[in-house]
């Protein structure tokens, strides 16, 4: 089985750096997990008026208001089939700030639209379309698009006035011998809201079930 990233990128996947291909090339059939550990050189948020947006995000592990330098960081990527039979990849990010924070995301491929849909938070309330592209240095770039909110019978397109566009860049630094990541979340009116950048190493784990604390508390079938 191809990974969801290879499925969406097609032949462009082969232009990724070999280490990035390895990191994003596994599926649930491989029985692997990628555990990244490193340090975020900078964790930041925007001006004071962005603070309420970030505090609200902490309730569902979407964003948070902490900032700092040299923050220990862990990212856990597991590939598994969710209860609906969809190939899913976790992006569980933990930041060892003064108040430890966590950012949960679950990515699937939408066969009907040929894109990645990213479910944010513990309850997958927010479904976000992602555009993938290959960077000149062989890195992977992910940019968020339309966002939809789902809770019970409630479903609506989330207004971008109250949200942000995320740009995630991940690449392999041959000189450093480590993976690098840069994330910026911005709003067209409010400016830059939140972000972080740093480097990490990856440990590959074979076999075993996906840990219970990694799985979402609720699975949303609507894309």
Describe the structure.
The protein has a single domain, classed as Lipocalin, CATH 2.40.128. Helix content is 9%, strand content 51%. It has 3 helices and 11 strands. A hairpin with a 3-residue loop joins strand 10 and strand 11. The protein is globular and about 45 Å long.
Could you give the count of β-strands?
11
Number of helices: 3
Here the CATH topology equals: Lipocalin
Mean of residue pLDDT values = 91
The amount of beta strand, in percent, is over 45%
Query: What is the CATH-assigned architecture?
Result: Beta Barrel
Q: What gap, in angstroms, lies between the N and C termini? A: 22 Å
Kindly give the count of domains: 1
Concise account of the structure shown:
This protein is mainly beta and 223 residues long. The chain has one domain (4-206): Lipocalin, CATH 2.40.128.
Tags for this entry?
Lipocalin, 223 residues, 10-stranded antiparallel barrel, mainly beta
């Amino acid at each position: 089985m191809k990974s969801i990233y290879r499925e969406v990128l097609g032949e462009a996947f082969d232009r990724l750096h070999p280490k990035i291909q390895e990191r994003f090339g596994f599926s649930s059939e491989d029985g692997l997990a990628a555990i990244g550990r490193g340090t975020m050189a900078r964790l930041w948020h925007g001006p004071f008026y962005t603070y309420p947006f970030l505090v609200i995000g902490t309730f569902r592990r979407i964003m948070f208001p902490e900032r700092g330098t040299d923050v220990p960081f862990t990212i856990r990527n597991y590939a598994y089939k969710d209860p609906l039979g969809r190939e899913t990849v976790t992006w569980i990010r933990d930041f060892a700030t003064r108040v430890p924070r966590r950012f949960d995301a679950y990515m699937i491929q939408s066969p009907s639209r040929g894109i990645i849909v990213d479910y944010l938070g513990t309850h997958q309330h927010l479904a976000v379309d992602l555009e993938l592209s290959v960077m000149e240095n062989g890195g992977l770039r992910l940019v968020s698009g339309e966002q939809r909110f789902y809770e019970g019978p409630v479903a609506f397109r989330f207004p971008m006035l109250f949200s942000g566009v995320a740009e995630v860049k991940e690449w392999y630094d041959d000189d450093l011998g480590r993976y690098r990541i840069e994330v910026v979340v911005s709003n067209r009116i409010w400016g830059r809201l939140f972000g972080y950048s740093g480097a990490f190493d990856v440990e590959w784990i074979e076999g075993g079930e996906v840990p219970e604390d990694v799985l979402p508390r609720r699975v949303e079938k609507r894309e």
